TrEMBL record:
Membrane topology field: Multi-pass membrane protein
Residue span, Cation efflux protein cytoplasmic domain: 207-284
Subcellular localization(s) per the UniProt record: Cell membrane
Name the UniProt record assigns to this protein: Protein p34
Protein species of origin: Lutimaribacter pacificus
Gene3D superfamilies the record matches: Cation efflux protein transmembrane domain (1.20.1510.10), Cation efflux protein, cytoplasmic domain (3.30.70.1350)
Amino acid sequence: MSTTIRLAIGSILVGALVLAIKGLAWWLTGSVALFSDALESTVNMATAIAALIAIRVAARPADASHPYGHHKAEFFSAVLEGVMIIIAALLILREAYEGFLNPVALDLPVEGLLINGAATVINAVWAWVLISRGRIARSPALVADGQHLFTDVVTSVGVALGVLLAVVTGWWVLDPLMAALVAVNILWSGSKVVRESLSGLMDEAVSQETLDTVRAIISTEANGAVEAHDLRTRHAGQATFIDFHLVVPGETTVFDAHEICDRVEAALKKAIEGARITIHVEPEHKQKHSGIVVLD
């Protein structure tokens, strides 16, 4: 079982635990804000399950119907997570509005805050694990899941402050008001996840830093070639696709041209994990004098 799948399964288990803890905190207090916090945890469970399914699909090898693999499945999961974050925020706003119209005193607020605080700590630790490990594994689904959990942490902190202020001041309207403010923050986070995921689905190029690395490797490793041009890149899940045209002298043999390509491919795969490389070899008269100059 791969690390990404183990982490995705772990997210489901952690989500179930946190949901139970937050549900208990809401049941003890009757707080609209704590109810909203627990409501978002149900979304955490759903998105964790979606991430697991997407990761398993993305891990499938290429086949006749999907010759480039199934890597983009993770982006679909990330988009779904962003949409569900937005839906959760809208549901929280609705509950906050009703609570604002009819504010009520809370039962056992201190106990509820302590219990909810334990759930917040668990979420914070697991969010850090998902984001850090997800970036190492180059898994958009895990990173999106971790970012979603981090918004849940922010939500919980804001909720705790609102409930605490309501208890200290006796202004019970602060409970739903804080829930509404946190919901706005969640809306922003959800829209950001959707935007980033859609960029991947639209075959966005790799970062400028990665592109500079690719160009430098081609320039230094393609000894025997003249230049490289028409460089194109895109990323899909854990895969990074790189293709370009490599111009070689007209007298270069097929064997020698293949050796140059092998050397460049090996260097690119060593520097960029998950690289999928396509090189089109061209004779010298195809030179454009505007691409990557190969150093001697």
